[in-house]
Write a structure and sequence with these properties.
Blueprint lengths: L1 H9 L8 E13 L2 E10 L3 H10 L2 E4 L2 E6 L1 E3 L5 E10 L2 E10 L5 H27 L5 H29 L6 H15 L5 H8 L3 H15 L18 H12 L3 H14 L9 H9 L4 H4 E10 L6 E2 L2 E3 L4 E7 L8 E10 L1 H8 L6 H12 L3 H13 L6 H6 L4 H7 L11 H12 L2
Parallel strand pairs: 1-8
Antiparallel strand pairs: 1-2, 2-4, 3-4, 5-6, 6-7, 7-12, 8-11, 9-12, 10-11
């Protein structure tokens, strides 16, 4: 049982890949300025979560699948927030999809969460070392080191691991690089020598404990751990260390409190003592299962054109973007998917410009600008486009256009010059200039 609690300690300083308990698959395709959305799941989705999803959709199509149509805000089915933003103009359409799932996007809160748990681990470590070394005259030197240097360095290291876990979604070698950064940090701050780190990275248990004994002796003011070898016997191997840790845990007030609570809940004064793993769950305020088990998500989104911005995989044959990830856990940044694409109205553009002059990002920028105009100016601009044809001097006509309201204000003294048509003109003129 001590193994479980030992893992709970180590888990703070590593991020592990868990087994997948269940998986969602979301399929979407555009319809009438919105999107059709179907959610399907496999695995052990809790009944309460299935009931919540059912309330968000129009109809159930299978025992494990629901369907609905949505505009603007997407349903918080998996947990999170999503938007499907659609801009329709004469020149074409632009669409932006973005959605995040679970996780925690309050970075300050995440950092505070990690700091608090590191503090709890260091407090536990100090208590354990004091339990074993309380009669050591130089123990206060070790306490000071743990309270100051070790506490701060552990917070830095946990931030390194958090960054590595986040960046691994975007950079193939992120985990490798940050692992090396941590090893360099530990050497630079005199915790482990490069040789000791190399051995530790290979899982050499003896080398790790030897380094720990050296560090403890050094911080208490001894040049060699052999000087206090008898006092460090609890760190000679993992069996001694785990037995020592388990024995110390049973003396703590938190462990006694957990036991008393168990006795009250069972109404039995002879209730068996709790597993020490329960001690770590209480101390760190999370369950090990929340770290070992992950939930997967796959999203498939049909797009008429290839997105110019996306963090998904584009499938040319299916005209579809696909994302496939683990869903973020509560201490991670939310799982985030996005795609932006545009579709030119080829018929309208060819009729008025002789060819397609706006597409991709330029068309999307145009659509956003056009939809930002008020109704009066929107009509005025649309009338300009409708008046154009390829036989005219298009550059001159577009260049000379100003909204009537802006033109009038330019004539008034002490009124700042403004030109709300500038963005639209520039985009179209650039398209006319391009070959």
């Amino acid at each position: 049982m001590i193994i479980r609690s030992y893992i709970m300690l180590i888990i703070l300083f590593t991020f592990i890949a868990g087994c997948q308990d269940y998986k969602y698959c979301i399929e979407m395709k555009p319809c009438d300025g919105g999107v059709e959305r179907k959610i399907i799941w496999s695995g052990n989705v809790p009944d309460q979560e299935q009931e919540r999803i059912a309330e968000l959709y129009e109809k159930q199509v299978k025992p494990n699948a629901f369907y609905g149509k949505f505009k603007g805000k997407l349903p918080s089915d998996v947990g999170g927030t999503g938007f499907y933003t659609y801009f329709l103009t004469n020149m074409g359409t632009a669409t932006v999809y973005s959605e995040h799932f679970r996780g925690q996007d309050n970075l300050l809160e995440q950092l505070e969460y990690m700091k608090v748990r590191v503090d709890r681990v260091i407090d536990f470590l100090i208590g354990w070392l004091e339990y074993e070394l309380e009669d050591e005259p130089n123990f206060e030197n070790l306490r000071t080191f743990c309270n100051n240097n070790l506490r701060e360095d552990c917070k830095n290291v946990i931030c390194y691991f958090w960054l590595a876990n986040t960046l691994a979604e975007y950079e193939d070698n992120a985990e490798e690089e940050f692992g090396m950064r941590v090893m360099h940090y530990l050497s630079e701050h005199n915790y482990l020598s490069p040789q000791e780190i190399a051995l530790a990275s290979q899982g050499c248990e003896e080398a790790i404990l030897r380094a720990v004994r050296r560090l403890i002796a050094n911080k208490m003011g001894y040049s060699e751990p052999t000087i206090i070898a008898k006092k460090l016997i609890f760190l000679t191997d993992t069996e001694h260390m785990e037995a020592s840790m388990e024995k110390y845990i049973t003396t703590t007030e938190l462990y006694k409190k957990i036991w008393e609570k168990a006795k009250l809940e069972s109404d039995d004064p002879n209730t068996e003592p709790p597993d020490v793993g329960d001690f770590f769950s209480e101390m760190l305020d999370f369950e090990l299962d929340s770290l070992l088990i992950t939930h997967g998500i796959e999203v498939k989104l049909v797009c008429k054109n290839k997105p110019f911005y996306t963090n998904g995989q584009w499938n040319e044959k299916a005209n579809q973007v696909t994302w496939c990830r683990d869903i973020a856990r509560n201490y991670e940044l939310p799982t985030f998917f996005y795609a932006s694409w545009s579709v030119p109205d080829k018929k309208f553009q060819k009729e008025h410009f002789g060819r397609v002059v706006l597409s991709d990002k330029d068309l999307a920028n145009y659509c956003a600008w056009r939809k930002g105009l008020d109704e009066e100016k929107g009509k005025e601009w649309d009338n300009l486009l409708l008046s154009l044809n390829p036989t005219q001097d298009l550059k001159r006509q577009v260049s000379s256009f100003r909204f009537s309201d802006d033109s009038q204000k330019r004539k008034e003294p002490d009124v700042e010059d403004r030109d709300l048509a500038k963005k639209g003109r520039e985009l179209i003129l650039a398209g006319l200039k391009a070959k």
